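User: Show me a protein chain along with its predicted structure.
Assistant: Here is one chain, sequence first, then structure tokens.
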Amino acid sequence: MNSLDSKHIRLIEADVENARITINNLSQELVDHICCEVENLMSSGKSFEEAYTIIKEQAGIKVLQQIQENTLYLIDKKYKTMKSTMKITGNVSLALIAIGTALKIFHYPGASIALLLGFVTLCFVFFPAAIYLNYTYKKDQKKPMLNLSILIGGIAFMIGVLFKLMHWPGASLLLFVGWSIILGIFLPILLFFKLKEAETGKERSIYVLGVIGLITFEVSTMFKVFHWPGAGPLMILGGVLLIAVFLPLFASMKFKKGTFTMPQFIFLITTSMYAVVLTFLLAMNVSDVVMDRFVRDEANSTKIANYFKNKKTVAANDSTIKVSTELAERTDNIAKLIFDTKIYLITNVEGVSESVAMKYVSDPDLINNKSNYDIINHLLEGENNAGLINSLKKELNEFKDKAISVSTDPALTKSIQELLNTSDKQMGIGGATWEELNFRNTMIISAMAQLSEIEKNVRLVATIVK
């Protein structure tokens, strides 16, 4: 029987290591078994290359990994439990998130519960179980910082996504922390180890290109979520680097090394495309067409409100003069509250001074972060700032009562009530206040349009009852 030399044995050991066989005894036994099978074929006249090619076709990487998987299931009950937990919770969490997303899109009840359960299961059961298995049973167990950084960063990021979807305070901070750890710690460490494992300069270049593309794409998503400038070009650059450059080079490299199968390639391409497309869709909070509609509505409402503001009428007698004067004062108070609210929204979202914000009020198309809705939610939740909306509602009610008190026409009274409706039960929706119904989870440009609509209605009523 022909014997293998040390060079051949080292090649077989390297291939077994590439298969991520980390159980010491099993690894050595597999090497011995493969060596024996190769020697048997070589004794029949085949060269080492021919014999080893046949054995690799019969016992490739996937077969070796399955052998280790079956061995761990038999000898380690903890591994079996954690593996089963990971599979079950992974499927359950993704199903709950998918259902919650669908319910949220169609505004059906139960969306919040499904999303909350899905993200909690994903963050605190599935993800820790996956990291534990990778740390304990894979060769990556010698890389604690790699596992720790993705564990902390991944959980912070996923909780941030949940908070963002639920419109809870602290979402931006959690997302920033998660992204910072993943992009600033995890990916550089991952690249460091990949460069150490790389066998050629070309392979190192491919890994560097992949990490740069991923960091660029994720940074662009972060810029888009936080409404920072430059998100669009970065997202296009990152997407091209990942999809058009890195993935083809990476797949080609893996195919040449014999460590990549066609199903794995299809899975990689499909999941990558889904990730990139969904990130694009998530980053696009609202289309430019819809945004332009809000801009036009806000601009038109402001113009109409200004028309009524400047409209002059002559009172017929002393009593109507008194009512007109009081309504005019209340109209000015409401207009000031609305103006102050708009200034507050713009200064906080755009980070500009009040003098610059005044220009934005006159020309809302200047607003860059038109789709921001966190600020209006903060306005409703803040104890001090919420006074703007609360005071507006109070002033509207007092203005409406005064206007109705001088109305002698039932039809006019009904119109005033409809125009200045501040009821907490509108459109058949109960359990929500007027403030919540009109402003909760509303984009800043839409909130400004709603405020201008209110001012327009107030000036219309003030004009009619004079």
